[in-house]
Amino acid sequence: MAELKQYIGKNMRQYGIWLALLAIVVLFQILTSGLLLKPNNIASLIQQNAYVMILAIGMVMVIVARHIDLSVGSVVAFVGGVTAILMKDWGTSWLVAILIALVLGALIGAWQGFWVAVIGIPAFIVTLGGMLIFRGLAIVLVGKTISGLPPEFNAISNGAIPNKLGYVGDMDAVTLLIGGIAIGAVILLRLQNRLRRSRKGFANEPMTAFIGGLIIATLLIGVITYLLSKSAGGTPYVLIIVGVLIVVYSFIMNRTVFGRHIYAVGGNLRAAMLSGLNTRRVDFLVFVNMGVLAALAGVVTTARAGAAVAQAGTLFELDAIAAAFIGGTAVTGGVGRISGAIVGALIMGVLNMGLSIMSVDPAWQQAIKGLVLIIAVAFDLSSKKRA
């Protein structure tokens, strides 16, 4: 029991964010008279906030590497405009247009990474300039709304996986199958990780905490699966996209040399340089990656709206940064988790949806989200001081 208490104390920030999400969901479920967790609202929550999750994944990596990116919202608008023009005016197939969009995002990231990593200009300045550049280019390209995009493209954010397996009662069988696979994968991966740490002689979390974590993860996935299976469409396509990104980037950050290099650069830059680590390369690749994810968010946002508009992506960078910080990413760099950022994005999404259902004025919604961000960072700093 003493070992469990000590472990929980060391990981209070990680557990606290999950408890905060649960508390916010329960609060708004009560305040909205049960409307928040209606099946169709859960599907809408995922579809409307997919862009935050995608951007938050990249933003965590940028912040862990001790930088910031203020340009992602403008990149979303610019890349979304280019994608729409390719399909609408040039007759490019939607798949090719998406591929071009991702390449364009990588080039934008390389442009900004060059100034940060090679020239040595602070990322705040470079990406502030990028925010202005790409917003201006978006306005030039998208003088008026570009609509009439292919239905297949719009389905990326608005469509769901077709139900080919029928129903179990009134529940979508395909969604139930996907949820079952997800639960099995979580259990298998956590068991493998525990065994791997044991073989290498590393300390593991107490068995009680391990089992408790599995139960919580299983219940969370199970509840989401149940609600989505009763929604009108089932499992949204965009949920699969976000799920794949979470798995891939969690693996990169936790199990690859590049991921360890990001933490090393952000944790102690001088020590990383003295150890022979190519810090410029790490910084450059972090921004290239951010550019690709911003481009993907641009595709998702444009598909969700069914059109490209010059003002798309406004304040998206603040949503992504807030999600990362709320999820436990350290302001000073070196600390951060992909899973934490996703939880932070969900908190932002639940706040948005709950306040909207309650018809709270958008200005007050912004103020409340800002207050939540300050409280989250303050809690993080106080936790570190106590440690």
Question: Structural class of the helix and strand makeup?
Answer: mainly alpha
Oligomer: single chain
Instruction: Quote the average pLDDT.
Output: 89
Helical content, roughly? over 70%
Count up the helices.
16
What portion of the residues fall into strands of 2 or more residues? under 5%
Uncertain runs with pLDDT below 50, 5 residues or more?
Answer: none
Number of strands: 2
Tell me the radius of gyration. 21 Å
Query: Which geometry do the CA atoms define?
Result: globular
Instruction: Give the helices and strands as they follow along the chain.
Output: HHHHHHHEEHHHHHHHHH
Keywords:
387 residues, 16 helices, 1% strand
How would you describe this protein?
- The chain has a domain at 34-159 and 236-314.
- It has a two-stranded antiparallel ribbon with strand order 1-2.
- The mean pLDDT is 89.
- The protein has 387 residues and is mainly alpha-helical.
- Helix 3 packs across helix 15, helix 4 packs antiparallel against helix 5 (94-119) and helix 7 (151-158) crosses helix 13.
- The chain contains 16 helices and two strands.
